[in-house]
Design brief:
Blueprint (H helix, E strand, L loop, with lengths): L2 E5 L5 H10 L3 E5 L3 H9 L3 E2 L3 H5 L4 E4 L4 H12 L8 E4 L5 H13 L3 E4 L2 E2 L2 H6 L2 E6 L2 H11 L3 E8 L3 H29 L4 H8 L7 H4 L23 H17 L5 H16 L11 H4 L21
Parallel strand pairs: 1-2, 1-4, 2-3, 4-5, 5-6, 8-9
Antiparallel strand pairs: 7-8
Bound molecules: nicotinamide-adenine-dinucleotide.
The site of nicotinamide-adenine-dinucleotide has 27 residues, from helix 4 and helix 11.
Length: about 300
């Protein structure tokens, strides 16, 4: 079994590192948070005092960090130069395509093989080892990363060259964000037109309006399979993270001059819900409560809500 340096043991990385340890790898884990480090140690990882220590003598390095600036900083200051050049570098964070390509380029210049491997699936999938990985990188680097990723996920897909994993991730999530908003407004309209939500679900899920946001993740409580809507919109995929991904998608769209009006609208609506109305901690399907005007915002300080939005 191999020695893996793991950096970033938060909501996602904690479960992923534990799964690598469960698979028999020697996992040297580092995070800035003492709580995260203690949890990782309880779950079979060896806690170390710095990122450089985690990567020294490693066969593989896996990172799961919040954003592009953290990834760049960790790789530039602690991985490059400290990790053996024979190690395969695997960044699983969701970050912007440009930074992903830049860091992979730097890795290559220093003699490392690296892939970007963002995930689909939330905290439960990270815990259960059932994530889907979308991987960008050269074929040889992909082949080397695959063995580790398979221990943390149910599907590992080679999306293309460097940055292609991040491109696939944000395109998928732009579609998800836009389709969730469309699903929410459709159910609100159906109800206002006198349709029973369950009856409409039964019809639309067998008709041409069918989509994942409705059939697998219905935003209406009590309709369709069990979803965060049935638990007060707790857990699931936070609206703040959906907003992060939509912003990355808009940034990427701007960089290649792509016209993405639905993505832009979804970004604007999630900005309003997650930031102006304080819904960032709720599951992203809770945006239906802004659309049907029933949202009761958490205690807010300062300015009044944006025009057109009534607080319950
Ligand atoms: P998180 O904030 O829970 O975890 C990030 C961890 O990185 C934290 O524990 C933090 O202390 C650590 N960290 C930050 N800077 C560091 C540094 N310099 N050195 C070492 N550790 C450092 O975030 P998360 O929910 O685990 O998400 C991680 C990534 O996965 C993000 O890019 C996110 O967009 C993506 N993602 C999250 C989900 C989800 O449902 N949470 C789903 C898919 C993808």
């Amino acid at each position: 079994m191999a020695r893996v340096g793991f950096i970033g043991l938060g909501n996602m990385g904690g479960g992923m590192a534990a799964n690598l340890a469960k698979a028999g790898h020697e996992v040297r884990a580092f995070d800035l948070s003492e709580v995260a480090l203690a949890k990782a140690a309880e779950r079979g990882c060896a806690r170390v005092g710095s990122a450089a220590e985690a990567v020294a003598e490693a066969d593989a390095i896996v990172s799961m960090l919040p954003a592009g600036r953290h990834v760049r900083e960790v790789y530039e200051t602690a991985v490059f130069g400290s990790a053996p050049t024979g190690a395969i570098l695997v960044d699983c964070s969701t970050i912007d395509v440009a930074t992903a390509r830049e860091v992979v380029g730097q890795a290559r210049e220093r003699g490392y093989a690296m892939v970007d491997a963002p995930v689909s699936g939330g905290i439960a999938a990270a815990e259960g080892g059932t994530l889907t990985f979308m991987v960008g990188g050269e074929a040889e680097a992909f082949g080397r990363a695959q063995a580790y990723l398979e221990r943390m996920g149910k599907a590992v897909i080679h999306a293309g060259g460097p940055g292609a994993g991040q491109a696939a991730k944000i395109c998928n999530n732009m579609l998800l964000g836009a389709s969730m908003v469309a699903t929410c407004e459709t159910f609100v309209l159906a109800q206002k037109l006198g349709l029973d939500p369950q009856t409409f679900f039964d019809i639309a899920s067998k008709a041409s309006g069918q989509c994942w946001s409705m059939t697998s993740y219905c935003p209406v409580p009590g309709v369709g399979p069990d979803t965060p809507a049935d638990r007060g919109y707790g857990g699931g995929f936070a609206a703040a993270l959906m907003l992060k991904d939509l912003r990355l998608a808009m940034e990427a769209a701007g960089s290649v001059d792509a016209y993405t009006p639905m993505g832009a609208e979804a970004e604007e609506l999630y900005t309003r819900f997650a930031e102006a109305l304080g819904g960032g901690g709720k599951d992203f399907s809770a945006i239906i409560k802004m659309i049907d005007d029933s949202w009761t915002a958490p205690e807010r300080v300062g300015s009044s809500p944006p025009p057109g939005v009534r607080l319950g």
